[in-house]
Structures are given as structure tokens and as C-alpha cells.
Write a structure and sequence with these properties.
Radius of gyration: 20 Å
Low-confidence stretches: 120-163
Number of strands: 3
Distance between the termini: 57 Å
Mean pLDDT: 67
Number of domains: 2
Strand content: under 5%
Oligomer: single chain
Largest sheet: 3 strands, antiparallel
Order of helices and strands: HHEHHEEHHHHH
Number of helices: 9
DNA sequence: GATACGTACGGTAGACTCAG
DNA sequence: CTGAGTCTACCGTACGTATC
């Protein structure tokens, strides 16, 4: 990806306009604010301000953003703080980065792409149940494929761009038992990795380090059940919400047990 | 053409500050 | 005292630009 005018990265934006972007950021902040230190929040807020021209996209170089924090109100941050903030933001799923190159191939500034807020509320009873009673699992498949077409990360000439790789191509980072379970419903490595990414984000958010795969599979069973009854509009969002509920519960149980042990 | 310097990136080590 | 948070100062890579 070559650097250029920010308008040329418009297609990477996941937001309809600045208002939509701001609403999502508000939701994100409620969810992840505690994960960042004071200085990191200064860096994040400045990055968000640099992402207003094209909603959710920032092409400014690190130095520009860092020096802007110095000019603003004296609470300047260092380049290291900015980089740490980016690492955390990527880990919680707030944004992703793409490297850009110059015409000659050398490295240029990064492009920061904010993600939409994942969490979805539980569907209410009056939600439209206009989906087929049969499984709508393939719908999720289509969602992913549509995302692939529109997110702009896949270069035209990339080998196998349109080839769907089955579950056996799933990254080694994804536990085998999770892959084996999910492949019964989605035999596509990119979908399985996408679901596993949500598991990581949610586990990290709730400070969970044990039995993650077990919980992830249980949550997936809940998702499958709900899909079967046609109650899911956004499979990724629903799965993320289920994960959060389960990890939150586990976090509180562990907390209680620790307190009990120390007494 | 050769050289020096600048600009990007990612990464690490060590030192400092401060709260608990 | 300890650990978290933060900063500065390095390293290496790759290329562009200015100067001799």
C-alpha cells in the first residue's frame, strides 16, 4: 500500500460519517478506557482527532501526532508512549494499522484504521424474526467475504485472493480443539481466525488467562443455538457479547475465590 | 559517482519518577 | 522496597536528498 492523500484511503473507513465514528469511539472508550494509562489516553485522543477528516482513518506520521500533543496543552507524550498505546489499541481490537511505502518501496508513515465497536446488545423479544428457521450460518460466511471485498487490504494481484482456504489452513495460533469445533459450521480458516480474534480480545479485556478455549467453545455453542432459532443478525457481534458475558462471570468468580482464599 | 545526512519504521536497554 | 509507567538514547534497515 502506497502513501498518498488521506482521501485515497476513504475506502478503508468503516464509518458513515464523523458522527458515526464519534458514537463508536464513545462506546469503545466506555469499554476499554481502563486499559490505558493517562499518557496513553492523551496519545489515543490525539490520534482520534487526527482521524476526523476521513472518519476513522489517520495517515499522519507518529512524529506529527506526538508533537501535536506537545503543542496542545503541555501534556506532551513520547514516541514510545504512542507506540505502546498503538500496541494496546490493536490488542483490544480498537484499531489496526497498515504500513505504507513510498514509490521506491521504502517505508513511510502508517495508516491507522479504527474498527467499529463490536459489542452488540442481546436481541430483544420484538426483534424481527424474519430470518429462515433453517441455519443461516452461510450468512456469516458472506459477511466475511463482503468485508474482504470492501476493506481494501487485499491487493488485486494477491495470490489466492478469491480462494477460500478450509479450516486446515487456520493459523497455529488458534487452538486445535477450537478449530476442530468451529470447522463443523465454518470450514474456512479466515472465519475461524476472526472468531478466535474476538476470543482473545474478550479474554484480554477481562484479564482471563485460563480455560479460554473451553469458554470460547461454550460461547460458540450458544451462538449456534441462537442462529438456529434465527435470533442473530450479526454473528460476530453476538458471539462477542456472549464471550464478554462468560468471561465477566469467570472473572468475578475468580475474584471471589481469591478473596476467600486470602481470608 | 561517492559520501553524509535525513526520514521513516520496529525494537530494546537503562534510568528516572512516583504511588503503594 | 517494589513495580508500573514513562522517557531518552540507542540499534538496524532502506531509501531519498544534498553536497562535493
Amino acid at each position: 500500500m502506497q502513501i498518498g492523500n488521506i482521501e485515497s484511503f476513504k475506502h478503508l473507513s468503516q464509518f458513515t460519517d464523523t458522527r458515526d465514528f464519534n458514537n463508536n469511539i464513545e462506546q469503545w472508550m466506555l469499554d476499554i478506557k481502563a486499559s490505558f494509562t493517562k499518557a496513553e489516553l492523551v496519545a489515543l485522543k490525539r490520534l482520534i482527532r487526527f482521524s476526523a477528516k476521513v472518519a476513522g482513518i489517520c495517515t499522519a506520521k507518529i512524529g506529527t501526532i506526538v508533537s501535536a500533543t506537545h503543542k496542545a496543552n503541555g501534556t506532551g507524550i513520547s514516541r514510545s508512549t504512542f507506540k505502546r498505546m498503538i500496541i494496546k489499541a490493536k490488542k483490544v481490537g480498537l484499531l489496526l494499522t497498515r504500513e505504507t511505502t513510498r514509490k521506491n518501496g521504502s517505508k513511510s508513515s502508517n495508516v491507522y484504521i479504527f474498527n467499529r465497536f463490536y459489542e452488540q446488545p442481546e436481541p430483544s423479544k420484538d426483534d424481527k424474526l424474519n430470518q429462515p428457521k433453517t441455519s443461516n450460518l452461510p450468512k456469516a460466511n458472506n459477511q466475511t467475504n463482503n468485508k474482504r471485498k470492501t476493506d481494501g487490504f487485499y491487493k488485486q494481484n494477491e495470490i489466492g485472493q478469491n480462494t477460500i482456504l478450509d479450516a486446515s489452513f487456520t493459523s497455529e495460533k488458534v487452538p486445535l480443539n477450537f478449530t476442530d469445533f468451529v470447522r463443523n459450521f465454518y470450514d474456512d480458516n479466515s472465519i475461524i481466525e476472526e472468531y478466535w480474534k474476538l476470543v482473545n480480545i474478550s479474554a484480554y479485556k477481562h484479564d482471563i488467562t485460563e480455560n479460554i478455549t473451553e469458554t470460547a467453545i461454550k460461547a460458540f455453542k450458544v451462538l449456534v443455538r441462537k442462529i438456529k432459532f434465527g435470533k442473530v443478525n450479526n454473528t460476530y457481534g453476538y458471539y462477542y457479547a456472549v464471550l464478554n458475558r462468560k468471561f465477566r462471570k469467570k472473572y468475578l468468580v475468580d475474584l471471589f475465590n481469591d478473596a476467600w482464599d486470602t481470608n
